[in-house]
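Regression test attached.
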Amino acid sequence: MAEAHRSGCPINLSVEVLGDSWSLVVIRDIMFGGRRHYRQLLNESEEGIASNILSDRLKRLTSDGLITKAQDPAHRQRQLYSLTEQAVQLVPVLVQLGNWGRKFLPASPELSVRAQLLDEGGPQLWEEFMQELRVIHLGADPAAGAPSVMERLEKAYREAVASS
Amino acid sequence: MAEAHRSGCPINLSVEVLGDSWSLVVIRDIMFGGRRHYRQLLNESEEGIASNILSDRLKRLTSDGLITKAQDPAHRQRQLYSLTEQAVQLVPVLVQLGNWGRKFLPASPELSVRAQLLDEGGPQLWEEFMQELRVIHLGADPAAGAPSVMERLEKAYREAVASS
DNA sequence: GATATCCGCTTGCACTATGCAAGCAGTATC
DNA sequence: GATACTGCTTGCATAGTGCAAGCGGATATC
């Protein structure tokens, strides 16, 4: 049988799934950092996650339906992690969380630029970004046109790093 | 000296402060549930928090600047917990988190009504609600006029319970 | 004015999660 | 054929969680 939940409150349920020190950080790295493999997530982690914790979180996120795992066609032993639609829809949560951290916690300016841009862009920009994530992770059809939100976020970040 | 942070990323910093099983649930109870004392938070907790954990979280949230503690003027030994401005500004985070849980997790309809209402109301309603929280917790001047957002949320919840 | 109850916690203890370091078998590279 | 990279696992010490019971002081009840 399925695991019992503490309550049916939507906030509580979200906390049960996401409320720990690492889950959202791993999702952030896959979503904004473009990390797709285990070693990438392990070695390029800003915060220095431990290998056993990463392994455990990837398993839990998979069984919770937030990420999927597939063999990388290029390298046989390499596993490719992708976000699911459920995880893509965490964008508004991560934006608000980033915005709050930016306002009240000692966030570094370079790393705050992206959060600020996403905050100022509003729901419309979030949706645009989510659509890009669907292209990358879920194989959705790309929408031709303006420079991607991901590129704009990267550009702003690089400029912030350069001028710091 | 102050504790070191894992990184300056705003999302990571928020996770460091809020990323555990109970912090956001306690804040939710104070914010939406109107719980202001220890016993209330302990006994009326939907999820059944343990007393030592509640004690620890209240201390941590206090030292993180999210809540304050004061003697209740009515009862000498009773302590009154209040939200700070920093916690009030968690409203958008909690709304998005509730909305996500409502969409993807087995949330009960009664408890989802408030999340839905806040989602549909958008940033304008959130700001209105935040202003009410400032009146309740920070002693701000009340704005006379329409029925409060808190009352509207309560009404929708009661109706949902009645019709279930 | 004695008794019982409520107040915000604390303590003890078992269990689980976390963090660190090392290791491992199966590719891929040179 | 040696070396390094792949996604992990294992062992172990420490920290956090969950449960039950208790505690001194303040308050309500009779």
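Expected vs. actual: identical. Chain B has eight helices and two strands.
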